[in-house]
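look at this record:
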Amino acid sequence: MRAVIQVVTHASVRVQDQLIGAIDSPGLVVLLAATHDDGEEQCQWMARKIADLRLMRGEKSVVEAGGAVLLVSQFTLYGEAKKGRRPSWSKAAPGEIAEGLVARVGELLAARGIEVATGQFGADMQVSLVNDGPVTLILDTP
């Protein structure tokens, strides 16, 4: 799994001009992608890292800060653009697999007591956020 994690003051996601998910307090926006060999172990690792990383003000984790997470699936994180001008998405897991894995990370975060808002899998989404710091981290599962 690959994630881009941003510390935000607030964030939202819209689909066809309808609000799908939002966090109105400091927290994290997590853009998350799955690859072909990801499974439960990678979901557990990623959720634990997202919850416990000390990225919030005062070197607190999102759990310690009482923050929320806006979790948005983004298969393009596995895009390859080394050759030519058209990116390849072959390293991204197929939608029918990735959707469940992204949802599982959301479930695991919620089980830690984190408020989790989400985007809409497979939709053309507009994500708005105010990056705080700015703090942005790219994270890959081992």
Q: What stands out?
A: The longest helix spans residues 95-111. The beta strands are 2-15, 18-23, 27-33, 68-73, 115-118, 125-140. The two ends are 9 Å apart (CA to CA).
